[in-house]
Amino acid sequence: MPGCGKSTLGRKYAAYSGYAFADTDEIIIKEQGKSIEKIYEEVQELGFRVIEHELIKRFSNTSETVICTGGGLPCFFGNMDIMNSQGVTVFMDVSPDEIWRRVKDTNFSGRPIYQNKTPEQVQEIIFKKSIERRAFYSKANIILTDNDIKLEHLLEAIKVLGF
């Protein structure tokens, strides 16, 4: 989910492990030469999801890289299965209330699903998407459930699960 801390934890783990870090949204912005919001505006959500899907397929021969995806990427075109076949996936199960707390005082820039919405609508979207996406996210190899997920939590899960 947008606002759960994927990018923050991903960067920390990459630094800790010495792996490269890749953020799919940042790559798409660079390659398309425009913001995620502009891409959504031009090709709508489905077009954006196709771009994400093509990008995730390109990572098939990538190793020693932490890849942070947009919150919706795992939910389209079998992307979660693709990611699971390529490496270790992590679901950061942060409560909708906590996500709302984190994003409510922002202008929601860079998060198209929240654009041009009232705060009440954004809160409703967070709760709705949390439910809708859970089936996809729950396929992850590692599920971290906490409202304050730290690098130590991820490292412990990796150790316990033998990844």
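The record above closes out task 2.4. Task 2.5 opens with a second protein, given below.
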Amino acid sequence: MSESQKPSSNPSQALDISVDDVRQLVHASTPHFSLQLRNRIRRLIEDLPAGHPARLEGQSQIARLDQLGYDGEIRGQQSEGLEPLACVTDPKLR
């Protein structure tokens, strides 16, 4: 599914969206693709009712993907003598 496509134009199918559908999209998210995934989730959940579990999970994941996309992530341990890579939101880079 491309980013511009909606998962379903049939409102009855929108109710078939589950929390697992949202989690499958974000399962292996990386900073590089997080903003594209955020957009896909936003379009996936936009027709769901406010209290729908998949919508709530999607909103939570959208916030996490926003942070991941703009702040990046740190994995592993810092090697001795090497500085960690700067974050794109680091005020020293502006």
